[in-house]
Protein: Reverse transcriptase
Amino acid sequence: VTGSQLKRMTWTPIVRHTVIVYNYTPFNKDLKEYFEKRDVKDFDRNNVAYRQKLAKRQKYSCPMCGHSISDFSEELETHHKTPRVQGGGDEYTNL
Structure:
């Protein structure tokens, strides 16, 4: 025995996906609200509590450019209101 193990199936968590309603497409502008709500649910499921709380406070949009942060097209970054080098901390009120 070398200390290596085969990966067990029980170690892999089951992650359910959200099914899109039949005949709905993200390219249909009339369904924009449907897909925004769906993205918010996915965002909440895939992020830790403080990021969820921060996203809700920002109405799920970037405060700089206004784009949706729940589409997962880019890695999320959490910035500080008062930079840490200027004495700002990591507490929620400074994010």
